[in-house]
Amino acid sequence: MPFSNMFRAAWSSEERLDGKTVVITGANTGIGKETAIDLSKRGARVIIACRDMEKAKAAVKEIIESSGNDNVLCKKLDLSDTKSIREFAEGINQDEAKLNILINNAGVMVCPYGKTADGFEMQIGVNHLGHFLLTYLLLDLIKKSAPARIVTVSSLAHSWGSIYLDDINSEKSYDKSKAYSQSKLANVLFTRSLAKRLEGTGVTTYSLHPGVVQTDLFRHLNGPQRCFMKVVSPFTKNSVQGAQTTIYCAVEPKLANETGGYYSDCAPTSPSRKAKNDELAQKLWDLSCNMLSITWD
Ligand SMILES: NC(=O)c1ccc[n+]([C@@H]2O[C@H](COP(=O)([O-])OP(=O)(O)OC[C@H]3O[C@@H](n4cnc5c(N)ncnc54)[C@H](OP(=O)(O)O)[C@@H]3O)[C@@H](O)[C@H]2O)c1
Questions:
Q1: 109 C-alpha to center of ligand 1: Å?
Q2: Which family does it belong to (predicted)?
Q3: From the CB of 80, is ligand 1 less than 6 Å away?
Q4: How far, in Å, from the CA of 77 to the mean position of ligand 1?
Q5: pLDDT score for 2
Q6: Phi, psi for residue 262 in degrees, rounded to 5
Q7: In which band, very low, low, confident or very high, does the pLDDT at 6 lie, cut at 50, 70 and 90?
Q8: Is 50 helix (H, G, I), strand (E, B) or coil?
């Protein structure tokens, strides 16, 4: 946490979202679920996009009970399969009159080597390429709904990342931490590039680090790493605290004219040097379009 942020009062806002529609990926648990509860309390229509419909239905029940807003629903989205992403987006474009806030939240961290249905390494595939395609497919609806926001949950781990343009799928060698950092750097670069492309449309973009948050994200850690997490747990956030920067980026009125930036602890902060490299951002953009067989200039 930047030193200056340690003495700031916790952020809060009474901002209402009545009449607004929100999509949140991976909101059946963790940071995403807490974000969904908060935004439903503000009166939004909230669609949680999840891969496991049993978990998703249980989460919808909990979100409705906690928020008192029954305008909450779940739809199937598996970000590790472009077919599922296309089906999900088609459903949203058909059924929804607007989409004011898209929250690209879902993520996997340090999983064993695996590939998505389309042959992408799992972490870059789900965390970056899945959300890249989802945003592309929903963008016309989002633009029509302006003012609108696209919030992408990255991580401080982006700072240790590089984009391996010649081996983005880690086929030559796989280091699970490097692959996670690569995907989270990709989130920040994507947000920056997207902001430039959306200038003048009324759609603004944000990426963020939520903090170190006690969630299921750590499911793939080994024994010693889990012990370490237990030791540091008093210094970590619970999921309500971990959701605050996402909620801030989604609703804070003062951010309405800011776009492309990176946030932590409900405040703007500087991402790593690589995350501000526009040449790298463009190369990643071109590679992503190429991998997904889409044209997005
Ligand atoms: N927790 C932290 O300390 C921390 C720190 C920095 C950044 N973050 C970022 O915060 C975001 C939320 O993570 P979290 O901590 O809330 O973790 P979490 O509790 O594990 O939640 C991750 C969510 O993503 C979903 N997901 C995973 N793979 C998916 C796929 N292929 N398709 C659709 N959904 C999928 C999970 O669904 P299932 O429940 O079905 O697996 C779950 O709903 C992630 O982007 C993560 O990188 C977290």
A1: 8
A2: Belongs to the short-chain dehydrogenases/reductases (SDR) family.
A3: yes
A4: 13
A5: 53
A6: -125, 140
A7: low
A8: strand
108 in ligand 1 pocket by Cβ < 6 Å? yes
**261 Cβ below 6 A of ligand 1:** no
124-176 confidence digits (pLDDT tens): 999 999 999 999 999 999 999 999 999 999 999 999 999 999 999 999 999 99
Q: Which of 9-13, 162-166, 291-295 has the lowest mean pLDDT?
A: 9-13
Q: Which ligand 1 atom lies nearest to the CA of residue 184?
A: 47
Q: What residue ranges define each of the domains in the chain, with the CATH number in brackets?
A: 17-290 (3.40.50.720)
Give the span between the Cα atoms of 275 and 213, in whole angstroms: 22
- Long-range (24+ apart) CB contacts under 8 A made by 214-223 are 214/238, 214/239, 214/242, 215/29, 215/30, 215/31, 215/239, 215/242, 216/29, 216/30, 217/30, 217/107, 217/109, 218/109, 220/108, 220/109, 220/110, 220/111, 220/112, 220/176, 221/110
Atom of ligand 1 nearest to the CA of 215: 19
Instruction: State in Å: Cα 213 to ligand 1 middle.
Output: 11
Q: Hey, what are 62's tokens?
A: 């909990």
Per-residue pLDDT reduced to its tens digit, 178-216: 999 999 999 999 999 999 999 999 999 999 999 999 998
Q: Work out the mean pLDDT of the chain and round it to a whole number.
A: 96
Number of residues written out for the chain: 297
